[in-house]
Input
Amino acid sequence: MHMKIAVITSTKDPAGMNIRQNLIEQGFKEGKEGFDSHKVCMLQGTEARIYTTDTDSIHCENIDKKIAEHGFDADLFIFATKHSSEAGVRSLSVHAPGNWGNAELGGKDRQLCIAPASCLKAALLKLDEIGKSLNGFEMIQECTHHGPFIEKPCMFIEIGSSAAEWSNKEAGKIIAETIIHLIRNKPKPCKTIFGIGGLHHTPEFSKIARRTGYSVGHVCPKYNLENLDEGMIRQALERNSGNEGEIEVVLDWKGLKAGKERVVKLLDEAGVKFKKTKDFI
Output
């Protein structure tokens, strides 16, 4: 049985519209139904739809409820968007949305969305498989960041990191193929980790997703450790889907740097056991 999947694209996002066009070329067709003045697209033989909006994706608060009011109660939301980076790294990336601190880019203060861990892993592995044709692009699973906030499991899949890449036809094609792979092949539940520490693009945790049977749900990077407290740890452990059993906390020990002592103390006081990335890879 297929998951009910809503793919969200924004007219304000050139990468999103690039991906939308590629999804149409790969089988999605416009239907009669409208949403936010745009035709809803459907893929025959599946329960997947593309919803296009004039709102920036990171500000699509409660779009799950708005779409449910239109009669489609999706199991998973996939936001197909651009990724911006000052470093200018060319990338195709996936991540869960949520804010460890103040909501500066959509969402709610100190609120994490439900991370579809097994879908994030499946998407990363598919990008690795079919993204080789894109010379100079990195395939990345990023840390948890930005909005919007919705109640249903959701993830971002992105083209980075500048206008040249956002409109790259081949990049849009690979993202579209990856989305359709998720639609047609429901990932099996797998053991999942919550990563703490390290860089924004989570190189150590991504190794775990690639080399082991574990998936990576939420990740709090080193630059957000000041916002980590017991409440946020509990959220990161609870707000997951597609996981098998309890979520394991894993520390990027070297990537914690000066934050080691504080994080270990936080986890000990919360009664939460942890492992280190070296225990997996």
Observations:
- The chain has two domains: 5-184, 192-279.
- The chain is about 30% helix and 25% strand.
